[in-house]
Design goal:
The chain is built from three helices and no strands. With 77 residues, it is mainly alpha-helical.
Length: 77
């Protein structure tokens, strides 16, 4: 089974595997929260930024990272 997008290409976007895990997990939780609050009218979460055939929040998050819709922002000191 082939993953889309390729994990190697997504890791390059975050510069490390750890960064990819943290970013994709955080965004997947946001996407999951967005889907859970639909219909409540609250609008507190950002919807998925890519059109995806996947229904899994983590797969959607990886697609967003691959397409540069979600990026790592450096922490200012």
């Amino acid at each position: 089974m082939m993953t889309e997008p390729p994990i190697g290409a997504v890791v390059e976007k975050t510069q490390s595997r750890f960064g990819l895990v943290v970013l994709s997990a955080r965004r997947a939780r946001q996407i999951n929260a967005y889907f859970n609050q639909l219909g409540e009218g609250l609008g507190g979460y950002i919807p998925p930024q890519v059109h995806s055939l996947s229904r899994k929040p983590l797969s959607i998050a990886l697609e967003e990272i691959f397409e540069d819709k979600v990026v790592v922002a450096p922490i200012e000191e």
